[in-house]
């Protein structure tokens, strides 16, 4: 098959789909070592894919973009025209199985990848991803592969798409709710043909583990109901814990309504103040993208509205960052949280500056601010 060339940067997960498929059928696809994503804006590249995205497959008949289509094309050519290459059933065998393979390919792209990308690059929709993972988990409970009894392209596509959230977003605690997805992902990712492509960058289970405080003991199991909403339980639990704190003279709603005289009203025994410094500020070069991330974070903080106020610092009921925030708002892990020492005048001055929103704070221009109340 002369003249097929895959243009993509190294370990581009979308390009991995056709590379892994090629391994399965024993086909050698020409690649572009040294390709950088910035190459996608050259006029030559844009002629092949006006979207300016990678991968692109260059063929004698013309170029093809969209990684699923590239892998599909490559396999069709192999099975139709090239004698001697293996037909290992990556499309499924019957028409129905082929449709199921397509079904899972789209599921991988639309239900997993779209939401995983939104999660990795907020504004995002974790709940949509959780919903898809729940459905996938149920499907995999009695199966090793998505379709039939052996690997199909659907498994390759889906596990490449899962590699993003497994690498950058999902903690061990998060994936623990989807044990069949975990087992499926780690089994596939460690298959020889996957490893040949991912090499030493094969995701490792240990790498996704993040140190967290010991989880609270699980409540006694409740009787099963038709719609057992186990996601709500931990939130309810911390809400209850916060509601049981000794009463505070500081009534948040009153203060939120008038928003003046903070220090006179502040009750340091019932509430605490926190600086939160984003750990990856070098990502925040474009104001509207940064504000989108902040917007997503604030949306997810909605569950703690009754117990918090935020404005480049946070005010929380109690003496800790609420457990429901740490458990449910994944962005919380992206910040370093430091309790404000209210006996320290410098720190109080900084809190005041955050309240007042002057043009510059600590020598940095304040471009835009959001308030959570
Ligand atoms: N749906 C496309 C997505 C391609 C895509 O988003 N590629 C990324 C790299 S993995 C890219 O080129 N990003 C550069 C950009 O968005 O400008 C596919 O599956 O091929």
From TrEMBL:
<feature type="domain" description="GST C-terminal">
    <location>
        <begin position="94"/>
        <end position="216"/>
    </location>
</feature>
<dbReference type="InterPro" id="IPR004046">
    <property type="entry name" value="GST_C"/>
</dbReference>
<dbReference type="InterPro" id="IPR010987">
    <property type="entry name" value="Glutathione-S-Trfase_C-like"/>
</dbReference>
<comment type="similarity">
    <text>Belongs to the GST superfamily.</text>
</comment>
<dbReference type="GO" id="GO:0003746">
    <property type="term" value="F:translation elongation factor activity"/>
</dbReference>
<dbReference type="Pfam" id="PF00647">
    <property type="entry name" value="EF1G"/>
</dbReference>
<dbReference type="InterPro" id="IPR001662">
    <property type="entry name" value="EF1B_G_C"/>
</dbReference>
<dbReference type="InterPro" id="IPR004045">
    <property type="entry name" value="Glutathione_S-Trfase_N"/>
</dbReference>
<keyword id="KW-0648">Protein biosynthesis</keyword>
<dbReference type="InterPro" id="IPR036282">
    <property type="entry name" value="Glutathione-S-Trfase_C_sf"/>
</dbReference>
<keyword id="KW-0251">Elongation factor</keyword>
<feature type="domain" description="EF-1-gamma C-terminal">
    <location>
        <begin position="238"/>
        <end position="373"/>
    </location>
</feature>
<dbReference type="InterPro" id="IPR044628">
    <property type="entry name" value="EF-1-gamma_plant"/>
</dbReference>
<dbReference type="Pfam" id="PF02798">
    <property type="entry name" value="GST_N"/>
</dbReference>
<protein>
    <submittedName>
        <fullName>Uncharacterized protein</fullName>
    </submittedName>
</protein>
<dbReference type="Pfam" id="PF00043">
    <property type="entry name" value="GST_C"/>
</dbReference>
<dbReference type="InterPro" id="IPR036433">
    <property type="entry name" value="EF1B_G_C_sf"/>
</dbReference>
<feature type="region of interest" description="Disordered">
    <location>
        <begin position="200"/>
        <end position="232"/>
    </location>
</feature>
<dbReference type="InterPro" id="IPR036249">
    <property type="entry name" value="Thioredoxin-like_sf"/>
</dbReference>
<feature type="domain" description="GST N-terminal">
    <location>
        <begin position="2"/>
        <end position="82"/>
    </location>
</feature>
<feature type="compositionally biased region" description="Basic and acidic residues">
    <location>
        <begin position="203"/>
        <end position="213"/>
    </location>
</feature>
<dbReference type="GO" id="GO:0004364">
    <property type="term" value="F:glutathione transferase activity"/>
</dbReference>
């Amino acid at each position: 098959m002369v003249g097929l060339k895959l243009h993509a940067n190294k370990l581009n997960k979308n390009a991995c789909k056709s590379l892994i498929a090629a391994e399965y059928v024993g086909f050698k696809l020409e690649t572009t070592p040294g390709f950088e994503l910035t190459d996608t804006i050259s006029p030559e590249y844009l002629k092949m894919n006006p979207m300016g995205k990678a991968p692109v497959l260059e063929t004698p008949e013309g170029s093809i973009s969209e990684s699923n289509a590239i892998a599909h094309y490559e396999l069709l050519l192999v099975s139709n025209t090239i004698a001697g290459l293996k037909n290992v059933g990556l499309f499924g065998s019957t028409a129905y199985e082929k449709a199921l393979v397509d079904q899972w390919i789209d599921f991988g792209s639309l239900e997993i990848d779209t939401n995983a990308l939104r999660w990795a690059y907020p504004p995002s929709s974790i709940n949509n991803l959780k919903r898809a993972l729940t459905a996938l988990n149920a499907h995999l409970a009695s199966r090793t592969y998505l379709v039939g009894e052996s690997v199909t392209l659907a498994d390759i596509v889906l596990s490449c798409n899962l590699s993003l959230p497994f690498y950058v977003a999902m903690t061990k605690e998060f994936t623990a709710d989807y044990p069949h997805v975990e087992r499926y992902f780690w089994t596939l990712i460690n298959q020889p043909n996957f490893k040949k492509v991912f090499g030493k960058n094969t995701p490792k289970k240990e790498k996704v583990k993040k140190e967290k405080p010991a989880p609270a003991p699980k409540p006694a199991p409740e009787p099963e109901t038709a719609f057992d909403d186990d996601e709500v339980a931990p939130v309810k639990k911390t809400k209850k814990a916060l509601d049981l704190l000794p009463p505070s003279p500081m009534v948040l709603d009153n203060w939120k309504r008038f928003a003046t005289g903070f220090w006179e009203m502040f009750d340091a025994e019932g509430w605490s103040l926190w600086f939160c410094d984003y750990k990856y500020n070098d990502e925040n070069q474009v104001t509207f993208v940064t504000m989108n991330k902040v917007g997503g974070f604030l949306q997810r903080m909605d569950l703690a509205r009754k117990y918090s106020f935020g404005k480049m610092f946070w005010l929380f009921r109690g003496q800790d960052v609420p457990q429901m925030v740490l458990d449910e708002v994944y962005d919380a892990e992206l910040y370093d949280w430091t309790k404000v020492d209210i006996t320290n005048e410098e720190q109080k001055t900084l809190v005041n500056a955050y309240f007042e929103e002057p043009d510059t704070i600590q020598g940095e221009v304040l471009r835009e601010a959001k308030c959570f109340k």
